User: Which sequence fits this backbone?
C-alpha cells in the first residue's frame, strides 16, 4: 500500500509538525490517520520531556475578559526566549489557555499543586460513600483512584479537556506546541476573577 499524501498533508496542517515526520507516521500506521496522530503525540511527549528541564525566563502575561464583563483571567506562561514570547502561535496558545481558565474554572495548574489535605478529604468522602454502598475494600481502592482522576480532570488545568478540542487535554496541547516551537513552555500561575465571587 502506498503512502496517502493527502493524509500526510492533513496531518502536517493539523499538527504543524514537519512533513517528513508526518510522512513517517502515516507510513508506520499504514495510512491510519488517528493512529498516526497518536504516534506523533507520543514522540512529542518524549521530545517535550527532554525540554521540560530547560529554564523558562521569558514569556508573557495573557489576559481574557469574557463578553459579559463578569469573568476575567490573567495567566503567566513562560518560554525560553523573547523571540518565542513574541511569536504569534505562542501568543495564541496563551490566549487559549486564558479562555480555558475562564470557561472551565480550574483551581490548580497540576495535581502536584493540590494540598495533601484536599486530596485526603476527597478520598475520605469517596471511601465513606462506597462503604455505605457495601463495596469490598479492594474494590473501594480501585474506584477511589478512578474518582480521583476525574476530580483532577475537573480542578487541574493541565488535566482538563481543551474546550476547543475534546480529544486533547491542556497538557497535550502544550506538549504539541513544545514539539512544534522547539522550546519549553510552562504555565507558571493564573488568577481568575468572577463578579460576586468571594476571594
Assistant:
Amino acid at each position: 500500500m502506498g503512502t496517502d499524501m493527502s493524509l500526510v498533508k492533513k496531518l502536517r496542517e493539523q499538527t504543524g509538525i514537519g512533513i517528513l515526520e508526518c510522512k513517517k507516521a502515516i507510513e508506520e500506521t499504514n495510512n491510519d490517520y488517528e493512529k498516526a496522530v497518536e504516534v506523533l503525540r507520543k514522540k512529542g511527549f518524549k521530545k517535550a520531556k527532554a525540554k521540560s528541564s530547560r529554564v523558562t525566563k521569558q514569556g508573557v502575561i495573557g489576559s481574557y475578559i469574557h463578553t459579559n464583563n463578569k469573568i476575567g483571567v490573567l495567566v503567566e506562561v513562560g518560554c525560553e526566549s523573547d523571540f518565542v514570547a513574541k511569536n504569534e502561535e505562542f501568543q495564541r496558545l496563551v490566549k487559549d489557555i486564558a479562555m480555558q481558565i475562564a470557561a472551565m474554572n480550574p483551581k490548580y495548574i497540576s495535581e502536584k499543586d493540590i494540598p495533601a489535605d484536599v486530596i485526603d478529604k476527597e478520598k475520605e468522602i469517596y471511601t465513606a460513600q462506597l462503604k455505605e454502598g457495601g463495596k469490598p475494600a479492594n474494590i473501594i481502592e480501585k474506584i477511589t483512584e478512578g474518582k480521583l482522576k476525574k476530580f483532577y480532570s475537573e480542578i487541574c488545568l493541565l488535566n482538563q479537556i481543551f474546550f476547543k478540542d475534546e480529544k486533547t487535554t491542556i497538557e497535550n496541547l502544550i506538549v504539541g506546541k513544545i514539539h512544534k516551537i522547539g522550546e519549553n513552555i510552562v504555565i507558571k500561575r493564573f488568577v481568575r476573577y468572577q463578579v460576586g465571587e468571594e476571594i
In short: The chain has eight helices and five strands. The two ends are 60 Å apart (CA to CA). The chain has a mean pLDDT of 86. The longest helix spans residues 33-51.
